[in-house]
Amino acid sequence: MQTVALNNGVKMPILGFGVFQVPPQETEQAVTGALTAGYRLLDTAAAYGNEEAVGRAVKNSGIPREELFITTKLWIQDAPAEENAKRAFDASLRKLGLDYVDLYLMHQPYGDVYGQWRAMESLNHEGLAKAIGVSNFYPDRLLDLVLNNEITPAVNQIEVHPFFQRAADQELMREHGIQIQSWGGFAEGKNNLFTNPLLSEIGQAHGKSVAQVVLRWLTQRGVAAIPKSVRPERMAENIDVFDFELSDAQMASIATLDTGASLFFDHREPEQVNWLAKRRVD
Fold first, then answer.
1. Catalytic choice (48, 110, 114, 138)
2. pTM over 0.85
3. Which CATH architecture has domain 3-278?
C-alpha cells in the first residue's frame, strides 16, 4: 500500500476504509472484509456510533496493531471543552479497545475549537494520538488554527470528488504541510458519477471501473481517500488501483468536471452551522 508521510513523520496509507453510514450491526463484518481485502487504514468517528464494532473487528483480525492505522474523530464539545474533549477521547479509546489511535480528528469546526485543540495537543504529546488533525475546515478556519496554535494539523479531511475538487484548498494545505484527505470521494453517486461518460471512457481505456478511476485520480493528486462499501467484491476493487496510471490528458479532462461547489452542504451556511452545533454525541 502506498503511504504518505504526515508532518510529524507518521506514515499513513493513502487509501483506507471508511465506515460512515455503516450501521453498527453491519460494521464488524464490513471491517473484517476490508481487512481481509488488504486495507490497513480504518476511519470511524464517535458520531458514527460504530467504534465498538470497529474495535471488535480489529481485535479478532489477528493483525498486529502496529500494522494498522486507525482514525477516529472528536465531536463538538460543550464547555469546558478541553476537559470534555479528553473525556470523549477516553470513551472512543475504550470503545475501540485500543491503547492509542494513529489519527484523531476534530470532526467539525464548531464550538470551542481552541479548547478542543489544546486537549488534542495534549493527547498527541502523551502518545495517545500519534497524529492529530481536523475535518471539514475551510481555508480561513484552517489557517486561523495553524497560525494560533503549537501543533499544525497533520490532516484535513474534507469533501473531495470529481465534482468538487478543492485544488486551491489542497494548495494551501500543501504550503502548511497538511495532508488532504477526501470524504465522499464517490460523491455518494450524485450527478450520476458511476455512469459519467468521461469517467466511463477513461475506465474502459484502462480496463477499470469508474470507481477505480476516481480513486486513482485522487491518489495521483496526492489526496488520501477512505472509500466505503459493504460488498467484498467492491472492497477488493476499490483497493486495486495501483497497477495503472492516468495520463496528464486524462487528469486534465477530469479537472473539467469540477463545479466548485459542494454536493452535500457548505459548513459556512448558517442553517448547517446551527444544526451541527446543536447536535451532541454521548
1. 48
2. yes
3. Alpha-Beta Barrel (3.20)
